[in-house]
Each structure stands twice: as structure tokens, then as C-alpha cells.
Amino acid sequence: MEQPAAGDRSTAVPSLDPSQASLATGSYYRHRIVEDPEWSLATVPRLTELCLQHIVRNFQNNPILDRLLPGHRRKVLDRLSTSLPLAVTANLINDEGYWKRCCTERWRVCDISNHGDSWKRMFFERHLENILKRFIPNTTDPNQVLELIPLCKDYVRKLEVDQFLPPVQVDRKEERDDLSDTGSDFGFGEVSVHHYDLGVLNPALPHLEELHLTYGVKNCGMNFEWNLFNFTHQDCCNLAVAVKMCPNLKVFKLTQSKVDDEKTGLLVRNLLDHPCLVELSLAHNLVRDKGARALGELIERSRLETLDLCNNQIRHLGAQALAQALADNPTLTSLNLRLNCVEDQGGEAIGRALLTNATLKSLHLGSNNLSEPTAALFSQVLAQNTTLTSINFSCNRLGLDGGKQLLEGLADNKALTEFDLRLAEVGEETEHLVHQMVWANREAARRGCPQHPPAKPL
User: What are phi and psi of 335, to 5 degrees?
Assistant: First the structure.
């Protein structure tokens, strides 16, 4: 082999035959391909993107939001987990998009129209409702509610709790034996079945405007016991105090809870001077005449606009007490007495009150065992009253003559736009004629046509 000359800085390269040179070259290129198999043209993420990812990952420990630019804030909110602690998100995040994700991921059906068209309000109202529905006295940690109150108090305006669980009984058999010894066939005895005390919760919700409650247990199945549906005297005392301490409460509904006359009186005493209450419902309870008299006093002293007493046990004495309060009442616009038994004595008393009342717009007297005398008096009401827009006499026994008298009274009435006489035994022809006249009034009201001037009361 030839030696390089002295002073020559070039490196000696051994000579290779053509076949070896070709093999060496091929090996070189194959080595380059295997060296970086994942090589691509993708660019490295921007520093801004890496920062946003870090903020999202560490949001629970270091919530950074207000200091971000609007576009960056939007990206962070879209990526935040809906399982973050409420202590972090409640008072920091007001973005409706985030709370919409929280709601839709948790509940299958979401209707924000029942929650002021606000996703955040819906989340906190339903979240608190779910905790109250599952709260077991003496078992559930009260801090579940107490710790949530500071987080949700600015957003909760309506609560609908259709279940209250009683305390867990240690020995159900022993309890049933005790009840049978006292002669209680239905288990109505109040044996430590007091429910969650809303007196702890309601005063801490300054914006609460609507409260819908049912004291009972849903889906109890084979575990059914009468005591699961017992609204005790202590429950009523606690609730009455709680409602009185909600100065902004406008709507209060306590339904299907076995509210009797005594409990009605207790509630009314705490509602007499309530500054904001405009709607009260005690539907599907056990209110009788004494309770109705207490409610009559409430009508006289409060600003109540809607009273629903559907499906109770009010008879003519209770209806007469309500009628007396209604005669000169300046605020009540809706009264529902469906599924009671006021009979003609009660129906006539209400009719006479409506000859002077100039406020009530809706009256429901369906299924009250009414007959022709009530129809005869309401014929005068229809001829004179210009305020009533809706009357329901369905499922009574007004008779053919009663129907004709109502038709006569309706002849010059231009205010009534709803008149239900189904199953009232007035005859198909009368029903048809009444329907035509009411439909004409409704069309005239829709077009804004002037009505007859109001008649002077008797």
C-alpha cells in the first residue's frame, strides 16, 4: 500500500473494491433510517400552550383565572374538570359554559327554565336538593350541608325537596310491636321519626324565594312503612320557624305531607305577617274546616295572591270561612278548592263573596258535590262580576236547569275566558253553547277588543 508523503494532512483511506464500497454505502443509509423512526414535521408546542396546560393541571392547588387574557381564560375553562372541589370553583367561576358541563354530565334531564335560565343556579339548587333528599338524621354528617351553605347561598333561590328520610331505626320489629300495643293499626305514632330541621338551613339562604316540600319517602318498595310518611308535630314547629325566618320567601308549597288542622294553624301563625309570601299550597293534605278558618285569617292579613287547597277535607263551614275572608280581599287572584266537599252551602257562600270581590280571577270548585243552588247563585256572579276569567265546575251535579241558569248569566259576560263544565251534568247542548261564548270572549281578549264597563256590585 502506498504511504502518504511527509507533510500531507489528508487521512489515508484504504482502497476498497467496488462490491465492498457498494455494501458500505448501503449500510450507511440504512443506519440513518433506523436512527430516528419517529421523526416528523410537527412543531414544538408554543410556550403559551404549555403554560395553559400547566394551569389546568394545577388549578385545584393554584387557581389562576382572572389574570388571564379573555382568549386564554376561555381555553382554561373549556378544559377544567367538572369534578373540581366546589370550594375552588363556586365563588371563582361564573362562566355559564363550565356550569352547563357540570349539569349535563351529572343529570340526564336539565331544564334551566326552572332555575332562572342559569346553569350555575341550577347546579347549586339541585346539588343542595340531592343532599337534603338523602340526609338521614343522626347518621349523615351535618357538615355536608353546613359546609355547602357558604358556597351556594348566593345562588339558591328555589328548593324542591320531594323526600325527607327519617332516622334509621335500630329495631323495626320492636317499634312495630310498640305501635300495635297502643292500638295504632297504621303506624301513625311519632316514634323518633323527626326529619332534617330546615331551621338550620333556611335562614342561611338570604335569596331563597321558593320552597316546595313533601315529607315522605320515594321508591321505598318493600321497605314501606307508614312512619316513613309522617310529618310530625316537631317537624311542623321546625318548619314554621324556618319559613318565618325567610323574609324573601314568595312561594311556599307543602304537599302530600298529612298536614292536619293543628299543623295548619301552627304554620299560619308564623305566616300571618310575612312580608313577601304571595303563593301558598297545602294541596293533598288533611286540612279540615278548622284549618280553613285559620287560612281565612291568613287571607285577610297577608298579601297572598294564590291559595291551593286541592284534595283536602274542607266542608261547608270551612268554605264559608274562606268566603268571608274573600269578600273584600284586595290581593287574592286564584283559589283552588278542587276535590273537597264544600257542597251547596259552601258553594253559595263563595258565590255571594264574588258578588263583591273585585280581585279573584281564577276559581276551581271541581268535585265538591255542588248542585243547582250553587249554579243559580253563580248565574248572578257571571252577570255582575267582571274580574273572574276562569271557573271550573267539573265533576259536580249542577243538572240541566243549573246549566241553563249559568248560560243565562254568561250571556252578557265578556270577561270569562275559561269555563270547565265537564261531567257536571249540564247537558251537551249547554256545554257546547258555553264553549262558544267563552271562546268568543277569549278571541276578543286576544284582539284587545273593549269589554263592557264593570257592573256595580250589589
Answer: -135, 125
CA distances from 208 to 45, 145, 214, 245, 250 (A): 48, 16, 17, 11, 9
* b (16+ CB within 10 A) / e for 362-395: bbbbbbbbbbbbbbbbbbbbbebbbebbbbbbeb
Cα dihedral 43, 49, 54, 60 sign? negative
All three cell numbers of 385: 262580576
The domain limits of the chain are 47-110
> In angstroms, rounded to a whole number, what is the distance separating the alpha carbons of residues 11 and 21?
18
Q: How many CA atoms lie within 13 A of 298 on its CB side?
A: 26
Q: What backbone phi and psi angles, to 5 degrees, belong to 420?
A: -95, 115
CA distance 393 to 421: 5
pTM of this prediction?
A: 0.84
pLDDT digit string (tens) for 287-341?
Answer: 999 999 999 999 999 999 999 999 999 999 999 999 999 999 999 999 999 999 9
Distance CA 442, CA 421 (A): 17
Helix (H, G, I), strand (E, B) or coil at 202: helix
Quote the crossing angle between the two packed helices 316-326 and 343-354, to the nearest 10°: 0
Instruction: Give the Cβ contact number of residue 122 at 10 Å.
Output: 24
Orientation angle between helical segments 316-326 and 289-301, nearest 10 degrees:
10
Overall residue count recorded for the chain in this entry:
458
pLDDT digits (tens, 9 = 90+) for 381-427: 999 999 999 999 999 999 999 999 999 999 999 999 999 999 999 99
CB 183 within 8 A of CB 132: no
Residue 220 has pLDDT above 70, yes or no: yes
- Please give the grid coordinates belonging to residue 354: 264574588
Q: What is the CB-side half-sphere exposure of residue 288 using CA atoms within 13 A?
A: 4
Cell of 171: 329495631
159-185 mean pLDDT: 63
Q: What is the largest CA-CA distance in the chain?
A: 141
User: What CA–CA distance (Å, rounded) separates 181 from 179?
Assistant: 5
Residue type, 392: N
